[in-house]
């Protein structure tokens, strides 16, 4: 069965409050911390206020692309449980994990088998390996069949333009499913009705 669910790109307090108060909240919520090209990016001051809440049993994830030391120092005391790192090599990942004593989701962007096999470099470092598309914030897809080469014991999260109706297709997979664009409206804002449908569907799966 699906391990857990992550809703990524939350940027406003109303949506966050709704998700945390839902009867079937996700295990993870992601916040775009430094990738300004994303429409879901949250400035530091807004982020600090946004996540200063009771998380209940949900983990907060800071989504970071090649974070600088300056930024990591700035956010080190914020209410995060995980750093989700894009474009960060294994040695840098070890450095960040040890210094900030935080759990790590290493994000690998996938288009072929060689991209998938990079997970081996992070196995002894990262708590979760995220397999994502090359699109970053553009919600592009990749062939999830490529992940069949990854052993079951690897703690896997997958993203890449996954739709709500795709959830039942993953019921026999040991994945954490990460969604963002598919639970937004045409204006690119999180849609409460879509989030509710997703969470209830996941609970039934």
> Count the strands?
8
> What global shape is seen?
globular
As for the number of domains, it is 1
Approximately what portion of the residues adopt beta-strand conformation? 15-25%
Q: Given the helix and strand composition, which structural class is it?
A: alpha/beta
Distance between the termini: 8 Å
- Contiguous uncertain segments of 5+ residues: none
CATH uppermost class: Alpha Beta
Describe this structure as you would to a colleague.
This protein is 25% helix and 20% strand. With 205 residues, the chain is an alpha/beta fold. The chain has one domain (4-204): TIM Barrel (Alpha-Beta Barrel), CATH 3.20.20.70. It has an eight-stranded parallel β-barrel with strand order 1-2-3-4-5-6-7-8. It is globular, with a radius of gyration of 16 Å.
Strands, helices and their partners?
Layout: E1 4-8, H1 13-21, E2 28-32, H2 44-50, E3 59-65, H3 69-75, E4 82-86, H4 90-100, E5 103-109, H5 113-117, E6 128-132, E7 156-158, E8 175-179, H6 192-204
Parallel strand pairs: 1-2, 1-8, 2-3, 3-4, 4-5, 5-6, 6-7, 7-8
